[in-house]
């Protein structure tokens, strides 16, 4: 009775895992029988080498940033780490503008930043947006402003700047958003200043009624409106010949803030979507072939226990894929390689057990005793091999790049689950089928 409960539970759990991993199969069955029910699909998260995308590596310019603390003018170790974390946060806000699914932005080493954007279409725009350090400032006119602007309009090159700084800049910006002119429908960028910025802006507009106040971005004027009256509420509007995309991009740049440290692009690797799909297809084919070869080998060498090991292997695959979806794990080519490797690991533990079983059967013991002794004598070897694998996966995950981390993560998950399936599920399945008949058919057990 106990074995029956175990088998029923195992079947139910396996079916639930199968439906979660591949709900399309269950939905097809529902449609075939006319059942108006559909199970939602939670897709696997694919890395850029499978989905297509861009891998960017940036290097921060440490010499361009000074610290009031450091004696040599350079940032101290702790300050530099904070600055790099600030760079990561700003870049992450910027890449979120593209709506990329789960972008990867992480600090690598002391002065490098890795950005992975899967499925992105406009790579050049992404590079432009990520590396920019926008500087917003408000400038006011002087007595010479009009004459300087007229001279510049005639094509004359002058050293004098037409506007002077007011002290109001991007650090006083609270929020920027795209709006549309109610009269013309032309996109504009609305600025909401902080309390300090609102007070400063009120003073600027009050003393410049009827005059020009220029809004500069990165040292270039983008809007030069005439002040009609004092603006006390900290609201400003940047108008220009924007299309909606340009206005949205400008608002995003302003909201993301300036980079704490200048960065430059030192490496770019782009994977096309078609190449990613081809890599995924080849990886799945390799996994299928490895599964078939392992199944043939196990059944040929170990007969009925080999069949049990393949059943266990399928349960293991379903459990691993379900975990990949739940966590979720970003699947890369390296990660799939780690998964395929764990297929062999999952069976390797069974090989140790079944080899011991064959030795016990050859010495004249019963099938039940042989199974018990096989698991008992192989346990230490199985445990130690999985511990060393887990330690290796941990070291790889903690001290390597993101590409290798995918391999390490799938390897670690596979090692833990294979230990469970080999020592628990395989043992329970063998115990469930052993009976009086097995003593008369010892040849089926090796």
TrEMBL record:
Q: How does it sit in the membrane?
A: Multi-pass membrane protein
- Localization annotation: Cell membrane
Q: Which InterPro entries match?
A: SecD, SecD/SecF_arch_bac, SecD/SecF_CS, SecD_1st, SecD_SecF_C, SecD_SecF_C_bact, SecDF_P1_head
What are the residue boundaries of the SecDF P1 head subdomain domain, all occurrences included?
Answer: 167-261
Q: Where are the transmembrane segments?
A: 307-327, 333-355, 387-407, 413-434
* Annotated ranges, domain Protein export membrane protein SecD/SecF C-terminal: 263-426
Which keywords does UniProt give here? Cell membrane, Membrane, Protein transport, Translocation, Transmembrane, Transmembrane helix, Transport
What is the first-listed, main subcellular location in coarse terms? Answer: membrane
- Tell me which Gene Ontology terms the entry assigns under biological process: intracellular protein transmembrane transport; protein targeting; protein transport by the Sec complex
**Pfam families, per database record:** Sec_GG, SecD_1st, SecD_SecF_C, SecDF_P1_head
Protein translocase subunit SecDF P1 domain boundaries: 84-141
Q: GO cellular-component terms in the record?
A: plasma membrane
Single GO molecular function: protein-transporting ATPase activity
Q: Subunit structure, briefly?
A: Forms a complex with SecF. Part of the essential Sec protein translocation apparatus which comprises SecA, SecYEG and auxiliary proteins SecDF. Other proteins may also be involved.
Protein function: Part of the Sec protein translocase complex. Interacts with the SecYEG preprotein conducting channel. SecDF uses the proton motive force (PMF) to complete protein translocation after the ATP-dependent function of SecA.
Known PANTHER family for this protein?
PROTEIN TRANSLOCASE SUBUNIT SECD, PROTEIN-EXPORT MEMBRANE PROTEIN SEC
Give the UniProt family note. Belongs to the SecD/SecF family. SecD subfamily.
Listed name of the protein: Protein translocase subunit SecD
